[in-house]
Amino acid sequence: MNTQPHISDPRLEPIAQKVLAGERLSAADGLALYASPDLLTIGWLANHVREKRHGNVCYFNVNRHINPTNVCGAHCKLCAFGRDKNATGAYTYSLDEIWHRAAQGVSEGATEFHIVGGLHPDLPFDFYLDMIRGLKQRFPQVHLKAFTMVEVGFYSRISKLSIRDTLLAMKNVGVDSLPGGGAEIFNPRVRKIICDHKTSGRMWLDIARTAHQLGLRSNATMLYGHIETAEERVEHLLLLRELQDETKGFQTFIPLAFHPDNTGLDFCPKPTGFDDLKTMAIARLLLDNFDHIKAYWIMLTPRIAQIALRFGADDIDGTVIEEKIYHDAGATTPQHMTLAELERLIRAAGRIPFERDTMYNAVDRSKMPPAPNANRTSDFIPQTSLSLNV
User: Which of 21, 180, 311, 349 is the S-S candidate for 306 at Cβ 3.0 to 4.6 Å?
Assistant: First the structure.
């Protein structure tokens, strides 16, 4: 552990005492952290908590992102990904296409499919159930992390099922856990401006609660760097902490830096590296009941993600492969990394790479069966397809 730095901001003295004593921080503490310019002390405290939990390890996985459609009726100002169904660039993959992309991911060693997409006005809930059922039948060894709370709320509405029954239907066909997207900022003032037609913050939390009660773990996110205030960020984090106290169902928290390009909020300046690192560190300090804090390199850039591994983050996400959502919003990072590149990135930051599966179990590639050839589509796609083209 590095020597504690000189605390230049006296507001941090009582907070540092709490952190070092293992005491829970308050909303006032969170606001003081955001108000302080003493980034090095905040980062040191977050790193203290991080290394106390995880030592020098940095977690990563080999995963494949699958976005079945970018057609979406929500029209959120924050989004550059969604399209009207007849717009230029709109797409909806058939089930065959989805399964083929999944097969490519398996051929590259993926242990997880990360599946999120738009709220398509014409696709029935059965399309998504058929997709998950087909993925699980073809690739039973791969963890299916699928559908945000916002998507679950939408599927509930179009299927006329309760949230609980919607989640049960998803779980029964093979969904293993849920990603954390769509949380944005929970506060109604912000949500009315940036995503007025999306599931409310309170509903997002209620859906997550129900998923956890059914045994489905999930991640959680916060989209920062647009019109929200420090108070609204802290409120968001403490609402997540409160639900985690209740359910213990959150796996990982991921702070998401807002990319304004090609969105209805393109007047917003991009978050700075200073804000990225401070938000990462404050999340680690406030979310004392979350095991993992992720530095999502796709949004942060690999360089900032490396530094974040000393500011509270213990996970750097995965190989990703074909990320669409944030690249549509102007992200200039690569759309994927190889396993070797990720390991090099982690080692260069002075951390020890630890390949995990979605549930943070160690992955031993020496015991895994050889990856199939994704070019042989007959290995994966049967003669009779469940495909639905729209």
Answer: 349
Report the alpha-carbon angle 164-99-378, nearest 5: 140
Alpha-helical (H) ranges within the chain are 13-20, 27-35, 39-54, 95-107, 125-138, 149-159, 163-173, 188-194, 201-213, 230-247, 273-286, 297-300, 302-308, 325-328, 339-348
How far is residue 106's CA from residue 375's CA, in Å, rounded to a whole number?
11
CA angle 97, 103, 108 (to 5 degrees): 135
Domains and CATH numbers, the chain: 57-379 (3.20.20.70)
Task: Find, among 185, 171, 284, 175, the residue nearest to 225 by Cα.
Answer: 185
Q: Measured between alpha carbons, how far is residue 230 from residues 31, 142, 281, 384 in Å?
A: 7, 39, 14, 54
- Start-to-end Cα distance in the chain: 56
Q: Which of 36, 92, 88 is nearest to 68 (CA)?
A: 92
**Cα–Cα distance for residue pair 98/60, rounded to 1 Å:** 24
Query: Mean pLDDT over residues 275-304, rounded?
Result: 96
Whole-number pLDDT of residue 337: 85
Torsion angles phi and psi, residue 111, rounded to 5 = -105, -5
- pLDDT value at residue 131: 98
Q: In this predicted model, what pLDDT tens digit does every residue of 66-115 receive, in sequence order? A: 999 999 988 898 888 889 888 999 999 999 999 999 999 999 899 999 99
pLDDT tens digits, one per residue of 171-196: 999 999 999 999 999 999 999 999 98
